[in-house]
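Notes to self after the Tuesday call (sharing in case useful).
The group wants a holo model before anyone commits to mutagenesis around the pocket. I volunteered. Ligand is threonylcarbamoyladenylate. Logging inputs and output together so the record is complete.
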Amino acid sequence: MRGTIETDPWNPKPEVIARAAAILRSGGLVAFPTETVYGLGADGLNPQAVEKIFQAKGRPQDNPLILHLSVPQEAEELAELDSRARAVMGAFWPGPLTLVLPARPAVPEAVRAGLPTVALRIPDHPVALALIRKTGRPIAGPSANRSGRPSPTDAAAVAADLGESVELILDAGNVNIGLESTVIDLTGEKILLLRPGGMPIERLEEFFGTPLGAPGGGEKKRSPGTRYRHYAPDVPVYIWDHKEELPGAIDLAQSAFIGMTPPPFGFARMVLFDSQENYARGVFAAFRRLEAEGVRHIVAEWPAPSGIGLALRDRILRAKEAVTTTRWESQRL
Ligand code: TXA
Ligand code: MG
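Result:
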């Protein structure tokens, strides 16, 4: 690894931000904190720099990237905006909400992975915002993990996955939300939920006054990232749905439980959270830690589907097996 710099999450030093921005402007990669998870940043208008992201992550070429902005006005040049899109930006940015919109020509094909659309968001984190502002470009930024691994919620997880290929890691401690942003598609009349995430869909549905749609078979292509097995540790994950029986052939003496409700089984290792928010905040780090400890199986409690719980269900399900975009939809019921 080339280096990690600790930064105050609230008041990053200008010289640290300037150094990181210089790396980005010269086509390098910088990992940075956001309120959701750590991102792997590159100059979003430089196709060679964007290509480095795919290399570093081992990311499939057909999985497009989010462009991170610092003010909504920057979206005007990158996407076709209508009054609905501007209203959503005004209401929810900065925040854990990514908008998929028709792309304008300024967006490199590498960012869009060939799609006619672009994903945009303004992260709610002082370090990310300072970096984007100083760089003066949109920053392309997927989660800073090797493709398929749990997303990093601290700088150590970034270093473990990508240390060799990132020039600088800005370490601002643990992230706040712990799961990625909610992704919605605003390209059609019906607003589609492509990925549940940090912005609860209840808030979006209240804002729009209508339920969000699920991408159907033909539209599955629209969020290519949701096709792969994802967020997964190298340890088999099982789901515990509060039943009396164990969810599989679990060797309790070598297995771990994570969740909020102590289960009626004697696990060797227990990671308990006192709220759904803390479960979401800690789930990826718990996956990584338990994997490092060498447990044989991880049993994760199936949370209620309200608030952040819907995103938590999605990530646990994807850690367990490859699922299609529509699987979590039925879990809302
Ligand atoms: O919270 C987050 O969103 C984090 C932080 C770093 O901002 N980023 C993140 O990026 O999770 P990534 O690349 O790991 O996930 C982006 C998701 C993927 O599922 C991708 O397929 C989808 O957004 N996506 C990106 N551009 C898209 C587009 N034009 N159309 C549909 N889906 C898109
Ligand atoms: Mg990711």
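Two things stood out.
The longest strand covers residues 97-102.
Residues 34, 36-37, 39, 63-66, 98, 100, 112, 115, 117-119, 123, 141-143, 180-181, 183, 194-195, 222-226 surround threonylcarbamoyladenylate (ligand 1) (CB under 6 Å).
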